[in-house]
Amino acid sequence: MSLLTWRKIVNGVMLTLTGVCTVTTVAVLFVILGLLLYNGASSLSWNFFTQLPKPPGETGAGMANAIVGSFEIVGVAALIGIPIGFIAGIYLAEYEDKKFASVVRYIADLLNGVPSIIVGILAWALVVLPFRHFSGFAGSVALSVMLIPIVTRQTEQFLREVPLALREGALALGACKWKMIATVAVPAGSKGILTGMILGVARIAGESAPLLFTALGNQFWGNMNEPTSSLPVMIYRYATGPYEEWHQQAWAAGLVLIAMVLTANILARLVISRGVSVPRG
Amino acid sequence: MASQAAVVETPGRKRTSSQTGDLIARLITLLFAISLLAIALLLVFQLWIRSGPARERLGFGFLFSSEWNPVTEQFGALPFLYGTVVTSLVAMLISVPFGLGAAIFLSELAPAKVSNGLTFVIELLAAIPSVIYGLLAIFTLVPLMREYIEPFLKHTLGEIPIVGDLFHGPAYGVGYLTAGLVLAIMTVPFVISVSRESLLAVPREQREAALALGATRWESTWQIVVPYAKLGILGSVFLGLARALGETMAVTMVIGNVPAVSASLLAPGYSIAAVIANEFAEASGKIHPAALVELGLVLFALTIVINGLARIMIVATTSKGSKR
Questions:
Q1: What angle do CA B2, B3, B5 make, to 5 degrees?
Q2: How buried is residue A51: exposed, middle or buried, by Cβ count under 10 Å (0-12/13-18/19+)?
Q3: CB atoms within 10 A of CB A267
């Protein structure tokens, strides 16, 4: 066999292999969705959305409190995290002092990479320890700490994509800088910034590790000052529990959670950010 | 004349008020930017303070002891460190070749439209919550590993000397290998998307020059394009590794939660994140929570170093390469 044929064979084989890698990876997503649909749909019922968890053996159990709890915890986390991240992002994009801004940027990236369980320890030390009890609010603090660096970096990146000419135009017309930012730069980058915020919220909505010892969990209704149930934590507890009914409930909860997270992702990426490239964290 | 004077005067006054407005806006945004630094410092401070009792009591022996028994207050980090590192290495061993292969396909072969579509799907994979991976792993991957894959590995690779030590013992289904496999699936999207970015940042001329010299498509890719982007690719590997080290839920659900050090990949083990997830809420006394926080501190240091390296590498390649 000549060297050339050999090289052509290697070429063909390796290029095919790269295709196989891609197809396999993409297939994994569909396998995951398929398994969730197959196992989750059968145990999903109206009760799931309206009833409280019940002891194993009783029928008609649901996760209404966990669904509401998730929305509460994530909602409060978003209320804390989005404004802080957004304004910090404006600083990085618009007012940077070169050195200090690059420090903040680097810290934001590092915070982004801190394992979520460690963020949970921080919230435990800051909120659970001083008040001496677990609470939904502590969970929100943990999730907001995760959200802030995400929103900061996304806001910064999308503001940077706003053309310089737009800013200069506003400044030349006599606008002062903060008015230029508020009325020109931010609206121009708003689609991307909104996308970034939705993606960030979708990401923290699926977190369970930082909630395990902050929001803990609750079998009943409760307010944010008490231990609060959330969907991801319920999935973990029910999937690792010993009862078949729990497993069925965990599948149903998994289907609901993934439906919410993927809907937010697809909406944000396809609809809102049409024509805007989404940078990856 | 009077009106003219007013016209002259007004802009002057406005400018000073707008300057103070700007100053205030600048200070406010600066304050929020500083809050990020404050969070980071608070994190380090709290991890240090809260692990104090354990550090004083256990000293450096903590890192090398493999005894973990909260009842007798014996705490050793070794089984958890070992489990965290082994599962992450198994994960990278699988996800790096796979991810790099897919990234090459997406950046070099696939037409832009197909590539973007597939990348979108792969990024959705990264958006799936880790507890969902754990749920799927417990009910589908674990039985599969126990019934088919682990017995198969034992009968094939397990017979080979030395390598066989990695694949002996009973097939539980849960253990280092299963956890590593789940982590591999979870880290692949990160490896792919960052590697693809760095490959796309390689100037077109590099490829054209290689092809013009008679290289095949694969040779130009493997010998020219990939080495050119190697820093970014290495960055993606480190980014994936940092993810794998800190991953909690999926690992907790499939690693077996046994604080032991085993040579066999089929054996159940434990990881740092998993033990914190399992024991922290119920930890009582002074030393137990502190020991768990100290484990967290070790994990934090590990991921910070690896993430820091990854960021530097990724920034170096994307700023060096041609801006697309």
A1: 65
A2: middle
A3: 14
CB contact under 8 A, B136 and A113: no
Q: Which residue has the tokens 């799931």?
A: A48
What backbone phi and psi angles, to 5 degrees, belong to B169? 90, 170
Strand partners, B74: B69
Q: Do B33 and A209 touch (CB under 8 A)?
A: no
Measured in angstroms, the CA of A178 and the nearest CA of chain B are apart by 6
Instruction: Give the 3-state secondary structure of residue A51.
Output: coil
Identity (one letter) of the amino acid at B96?
V
Q: Is the dihedral of CA B113, B114, B117, B120 positive or negative?
A: negative
Tell which wins on pLDDT, B313 or A145: A145
- CB spacing of B197 vs A113 below 8 angstroms: no
Identify the helix (H) or strand (E) that includes residue A170.
helix A164-172
Q: What is the pLDDT of residues A11-26, one digit of tens each?
A: 899 999 999 999 999 9
Chain B residues in contact with A229 (beta carbon < 8 A): none
CA distance linking residue A211 with residue B276, whole number of Å: 12
Q: What is the pTM of this model?
A: 0.90
Asked if residues A198 and A268 have their Cβ atoms less than 8 Å apart, the reply is yes
Three-state SS at B114: helix
At residue A156, what is the residue type? Answer: E
**Residues of chain B neighbouring A213 (CB-CB closer than 8 A):** 280-281
Contact A91 B32 (CB under 8 A): yes
Residues of B in contact with A236 (CB under 8 A): 131, 134, 249, 252-253
A43 touches A252 (CB < 8 A) = yes
Chain A nearest C-alpha distance from B306 (Å): 10
Residue B218: which of A11, A100, A203 has the nearest Cβ? Answer: A11
Task: Write down the ipTM of this complex.
Answer: 0.91
Contact B127, A203 (CB under 8 A): yes
Structural domains for chain A? 46-272 (1.10.3720.10)
What is the per-residue pLDDT for B16?
Answer: 67
